[in-house]
Amino acid sequence: MIFACDLDQTLIYSRNSMGLVDADDLVPVESNDGEYRSFMTRAAYSNLQYLSEQILFVPATTRIYEQYERIFGLREGIQSKYAIVSNGGKVLIDGRPDRVWEDQVRRTVRTNCAPSTEIKSKFDRLVAKDCIIKDAYCDDLFYSVIVKRDLLPPDLMPELESLLQGHGWNCSLQGRKIYLVPDHVTKGAAVRYVKELSGEQSVFAAGDSLLDESMLLVADEAMAPNHGELYRKYGSHDRIRFTERSGIRASEDILDVLMNRMEVRNVL
């Protein structure tokens, strides 16, 4: 079995996103500029350690490689032969990019998606400059734009989604970030590729945002925290099970379900 899991606000949490939790119950998993940035609960981390020894754990993140590398907690004590970064634009095998997959993704994007400069120009005409703090073109694949969310028009995302239709791009709002991503750069496609490489027969996937939806829909079983874009959009879904709890405790709910699956499998 593959456990393909989004990271930020699904498995790991910043102090701003975790909700109320006792500091003694936290395990730091990411460091940047000398400070701990992301955490898991002790129970979740312990369960992930166990599960990574029993099944194929595949981190799947929109972070680029350099940002993913900051998460030391996934290198120390957690087994993961494969990882998906750049929203599926890159697959790592034993920490190194798979060039076959990366070349395939880039060819597909060039052939089927509008040029990135055209998309950014459309975005810039729609979003006022005073709403934007910083933007970046990540891995020459997609845009990440940090915004002043309280200044954004309430109907911005539906309008942006409509603007991108027919151009081979989509959008997602996560916290203070708006992502502009080619339709062919998806976690779902990368998970299917890892499944072929590994020879595993089934996929359990978890994620909180619209960028995770492709991954959840290719999985045999899927879960999402009851916070984030997916929960706000659907509330309930016939293919996606939402957690009982939100914030950092949602990761415990997801891992508890997997632990129960392993117990049943061991009994059988």
UniProtKB/TrEMBL annotation:
Gene3D superfamilies: HAD superfamily/HAD-like
UniProt superkingdom: Bacteria
UniProt domain Sucrose phosphatase-like: residue ranges: 2-218
InterPro entries recorded: HAD-like_sf, HAD_sf, SPP-like_dom, TPP-like
Any one GO molecular-function label of the UniProt entry: hydrolase activity
Keywords: Hydrolase
Pfam family, one: S6PP
Keyword check for Iron-sulfur: no
Name of the protein this chain belongs to: Hydrolase
Organism: Cohnella luojiensis
Lineage: Bacteria, Bacillati, Bacillota, Bacilli, Bacillales
